[in-house]
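Bit of a strange request maybe. I'm writing a small parser for structure token strings and I need a real example to test against, not something I typed by hand. Could someone generate the tokens for this chain?
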Amino acid sequence: MSTRVFKRIYICLGACKRGFRAIGRDLLGVDGAFMKEPAIGHLLTAVGLDSNNGIYPVAYAIVESECYDSWCWFLELVASDLELDEMCNFTFISDRQKVLVSAVAKVFPVAEHRFCLRHIHENMKKNWRGVAYKNHLWACATATTVPQFEKKMALLKEFSEPAYVYLSKIPPAQWARSHFTGRALSDILLNNICEVLNRWLCEARDKPIITALEYIRQYLMKRIANVITAISKCNTPLTLGATKVFDKVKKEAMKCDVIWNGDEKYQVNGHHDDQVVVDMGAKNCSCRKWDLTGIPCKHAVAALLNMACYSQEVFLEKWVHPVYWVSTWKSTYSHTINPVRGKSEWTKSPIPTTLIPPKFHATPGRPKKNRKKSLDEKDEMVTNGKLTRKGKTIKCGDCGTYGHNKRGCTKDKPTPSLKRKGGDGDGNGRNKKVKAATSDV
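Reply from user aminoacidic:
Good idea to test on real output. This should exercise your parser:
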């Protein structure tokens, strides 16, 4: 066969693979985005979360479409590169695309698969719109314990039973923190890590396949260099993002009351009925925030401060999981991507087969390059730097009252004249002029 038609290509750079292993976080976000003209197909991405809670691209591929076969092919290659067993306890987060959910279940049957909460909210808005529904959804999703989750769900049932029934059909292990495991060391509810990467690669998706792949490689190379520069300026034991979060937790811990049991357990009282048990030996708290993120919660920090009162040497940052340490951050980005020579110096392939582009089927109308916006994005108050007229009360130019314009004004108006200049309103004006001229003659 002298020619072959291009179908798919998968890339996982060695630096990205080794860097992801150094993070020590079993979490990947997967998503797809359409390629624009002149290339066709979809760009699939697998993105991790680094020590600074920033994105860490791991692998990407250009496929013919987001179908079940292409997603299985992509996930199997990711599993091979990252040495993931099919029975591994890994965590994935994605939208609720049916073929993607089925592909993850096939390749990783025991993995924890989270659904992006924004995608769930978008589906709910088809029947239940409004800020109240959104607040109830987020209250249920952000509850960290099962009793709290059940309490929030009961409030949703009182507010709207149909919405409660709809949400109950989705397993809470896929969208509620109260049912998440702590294996991923992250309590994220949104698949923003993939959305951020897709936004940065928007220009790549507008180029031919080889040019797009080269654009992505250069982006990853520059991104690693930029993070290395940020690491060199960090003079704290924790990463910049973890330090900001932990400083906030320390302030909240000052408001808690602690009772020591004489061993390794503490009873910590916060606001209202917030009473939990902290086990310093097991490094967990009954509120489960420490388990989910790896960062001690306010109750644990209050217990650590109490330990310092009893002449025990305590270094707070040491109790944070090593995934947030600057040393781990440095180790992750110590793997860099090497530059390559230009196309003019590439070695010609000895393979006699010629690879030709896939068949292009032109759709009717002008090609669309912009993605479809959600209802939330369409309702934004600012568009292109200018305020929209959304929410503004219109004023009638005739009667001066608010709530309608001239066209919808019901106030009595003078009947418009049907006469035209030089006529009597029945269209015979020109004839009358002619008759008048004839009579004068």
